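Our consortium's second objective concerns turning raw sequence data into structural hypotheses that experimental partners can test. To show how far this objective has progressed, the report includes one record in full. It was chosen at random from the queue rather than selected for favorable results. The single chain below, 127 residues long, was entered without modification.
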Amino acid sequence: MRLNHLNLPVDDLAEARSFFERAFGFRCVRQAADVVSVMSDEHGFTLTLANASRFGGETPRYPDAFHVGFIVESPAAVDAAYQRLAAANVPLARAPGQQHGAYGFYFTALNGILFEVQCTSRAAADG
């Protein structure tokens, strides 16, 4: 069994779609007006972004421990992701560093969603 997709309710569908395209290389494979965007990454993972207000919901408020995590192949890829986000004016509170036995960083975007980018390679863990 493998995870097929994740549906992430968001406050601003257009902003979320653009963010995932620019920041993480997702591509939109289907857009249904301002209701949903179906995104895919280079590994075949499907991320569905849903406009929360179109489903009768309010602006999503995720619990403190909730986050969206990305694994990259090397410490250099972590640094490259950090630089790409900084160049896109995404607020980044702390530079990449050692955390939980891995090299990476956290940041918030899209109205408060916590994101993590990390590399768990042995070289990163040895720091």
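The partners drew two points from this record. The domain at 5-55 is CATH 3.30.720.120 (Signal recognition particle alu RNA binding heterodimer, srp9/1). The radius of gyration is 15 Å. Both points have been shared with the crystallography group to help prioritize constructs.
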